[in-house]
Design brief:
By secondary structure, chain A is mostly helical. Chain A has 14 helices and no strands. By secondary structure, chain B is α/β, with parallel strands linked by helices. Classes of the chains: A mainly alpha, B alpha/beta.
Chain lengths: 268, 338
């Protein structure tokens, strides 16, 4: 049996034990989720601005739909792998993962995915209530956009996960990779459409955002979900997103392999 | 050596150099280190070759060697083969054949009961249902963990955790066991329990056990063959009694007496290490032992007599007080057993 098919066979158990772990850390998870409620702050700001007159295509209802969708996408695709890898590499705990006949990134991915149902359980009802109150009809219900949205959501998760794995791998050569993560986060805040919908950017900045990968981790699935993006544009963006995800995965796996050679397995 | 291919572990010229960032204390040094970092090469293991307990003081290179053997570290130079594999390639087939238990690093999931780690390992190692059941039953019997393995790991005592660590590490029935200080921090009875388990596991499964420890009792109880490294260099490779003979070529004779013995008379037989009214300890060269015992047994005051090797701690102290580049040669065994 190949290593990959064995890993796939082990995946349901990895997910089950990961879920049990997420349940054990439910309080921490809730607090961590509360730190990612920036879309709610943006929502309050922008609906206040849009009260007098809409900005472009965005009135109060559009802002509500956009930022609620952003909250959902962020919660379902976010990854804290950088912190975990940074701690595992610096403390030497990575040793236990390296001793297993399954790639550690595979196990990390299961732990990450296993927490999503709990995060969904906590955030989806809040977002659904807010949407029902205002802007609910803007959500796409037809099967085609929903299918594109599902693919975009998975693409966003993959892109996020491998970006975090790539930055996390820097801890093999740097004393801490979290500083680089802060830098990435600054780029994400601006270019992912987290604070302001990209459509409202000045044209030059919009063009830069279209080229950078950040948009594909958040704004793109959000735009598909609330119908800001037509099917043709959405499919093209989906191809770009998956290409970014594949390239990031390849780079992250390369960085991991190079990094493990330098792993000093201290502290044990 | 004709038997060389049979060795499950082969090490030739192994070296591992860590590049360590060095800076002095203080703000100025911190700022300086931002612009100009000073690195120091620390030779953890230097040119080590052996074809298996590992003895040595803190910092000797025991753990580094174990980490290289288990594929966690890439050696700076040298050749290592374990069960025919190059460890640092970390091939799945290799990882399924080995296990590494670190006394100070755990694999048990902290907030979940050990049974969850067991089922995780079952999935990761692809252990079939019947094999898992049989191995689990055996480990539960040998380690007496059936009662504790459903409690969250964080609520277990150190000794209970170590037993569950051993179970988690052995579920896939590895043929090579690397045990790094498995009894560290455990109380005496728990140390005995873990030691007994390792011995019985080795007997039942014929697994190769490579163990590092600075508890001499671990080594004396478990290891027919001993490798001693100090400052990353091999100092001794052979069996334990031969090591004791080579470093301390004396035997100890402990006496119980019904009346005080005369010191001068005892000193004619051997060195007097202890002397009180009811007890005496003498030290005599190996070749004078028979004659000394004869003399002592002829004395009516002697009610009991035992012949012992010097305590291992003493042997080690003496060994490590020599320079690290002086190999221990005298009295090494002729035949080596991997």
């Amino acid at each position: 049996m190949s290593a990959f098919s064995r890993a796939l066979q082990a995946y349901p158990t990895l997910l089950r034990v990961g879920f049990a772990g997420a349940l054990a850390y439910r309080a921490e998870l809730l607090i961590w989720m509360l730190t990612t409620t920036m879309p709610l702050v943006s929502l309050a700001l922008w609906t206040a601005v849009a009260e007098s007159a809409p900005i472009g295509r965005f009135g109060a209802a559009e802002f509500t739909a956009y930022f609620m969708a952003a909250l959902i996408v962020r919660q379902l695709t976010g990854s804290w792998l950088v912190w975990e890898m940074n701690m595992d590499i610096r403390s030497g705990s990575l040793s236990q993962r390296l001793l297993k006949p399954i790639h550690p990134l595979f196990v990390y991915s299961a732990e990450n995915l296993a927490a999503i149902p709990l995060r969904a359980l906590l955030c989806v009802p809040i977002a659904a209530l807010a949407l029902a109150a205002a802007g609910g009809e803007r959500f796409q219900a037809a099967p085609a956009p929903l299918a594109i949205f599902a693919a975009a959501l998975l693409g966003a998760w993959l892109l996020n996960f491998f970006t975090m794995a790539l930055i996390g791998s820097l801890a093999f050569v740097m004393e801490s990779s979290t500083a680089v993560f802060q830098l990435y986060l600054a780029g994400f805040m601006i270019f992912a459409g987290y604070l302001v919908p990209i459509e409202l950017f000045p044209p030059a900045l919009r063009e830069i955002a279209a080229v950078l990968p950040f948009r594909y981790t958040l704004a793109f699935p959000v735009e598909v979900l609330i119908g800001l993006s037509g099917p043709r544009a959405a499919l093209r963006d989906l191809a770009v997103q998956w290409a970014y995800a594949a390239a990031t995965a390849a780079t992250a796996l390369w960085a991991w392999r190079a990094g493990v050679r330098r792993f000093a397995a201290f502290g044990g | 050596m004709a038997q060389a291919p049979l060795y499950s572990i082969e090490v030739k010229g192994l070296s591992k150099v860590y590049r360590v960032h060095e800076r002095e204390a203080g703000l100025a040094a911190a700022l300086r280190s931002v612009f100009r970092r000073r690195y120091k090469a620390v030779h953890a293991v230097e040119d080590l070759s052996f074809s298996i307990g590992f003895l040595g003081p803190n910092g000797a290179g025991k753990t580094t060697t174990l980490k290289v053997l288990s594929g966690l570290l890439h050696p700076t130079s040298g050749d290592v083969r374990v069960s025919g594999h190059v460890p640092q390639r970390r091939e799945a087939d290799f990882l399924k054949r080995i296990t590494l238990v670190m006394g100070q690093k755990q694999q048990l999931l902290w907030d979940l009961p050990p049974v969850e780690t067991f089922s995780l390992n079952r999935a990761i190692y692809g252990i079939s249902g019947p094999a898992f059941k049989a191995t689990m039953a055996e480990l539960e019997e040998l380690l007496d963990i059936a009662r504790i393995s459903s409690k969250p790991t964080r609520q277990l005592s150190l000794g209970e955790r170590m037993k569950c660590e051993l179970a988690a590490a052995l579920l896939h029935q590895p043929e090579v066991l690397f045990l790094d200080e498995p009894t560290i921090g455990l109380d005496v009875s728990m140390q005995l329990g873990v030691r007994e388990f390792i011995r019985r596991y080795n007997e039942r499964h014929g697994a190769t056990v490579v163990l590092t420890s600075h508890y001499m009792d671990d080594v004396a109880a478990l290891c027919p063959r001993v490798i001693i490294i100090d400052q990353g260099r091999l100092r001794y490779d052979g069996d334990l009694p031969a090591l004791v003979r080579s470093v301390r070529p004396h035997k100890r004779i402990a006496l119980r007496t019904s009346a005080p013995l005369d010191r001068a008379a005892l000193e004619r037989i051997g060195g007097v290490l202890e002397l009180d009214p009811a007890r005496a300890v003498l030290q005599v060269p190996q070749d004078a032992l028979r004659e000394a015992v004869g003399h002592l047994l002829a004395r009516p005051e002697v009610t009991d007599l035992t012949v012992e090797d010097p305590p291992l701690e003493e042997v080690m102290r003496e060994l490590f007080s020599h320079k690290a580049d002086e190999p221990v040669t005298a009295g090494g065994p002729e035949e080596k057993d991997a």
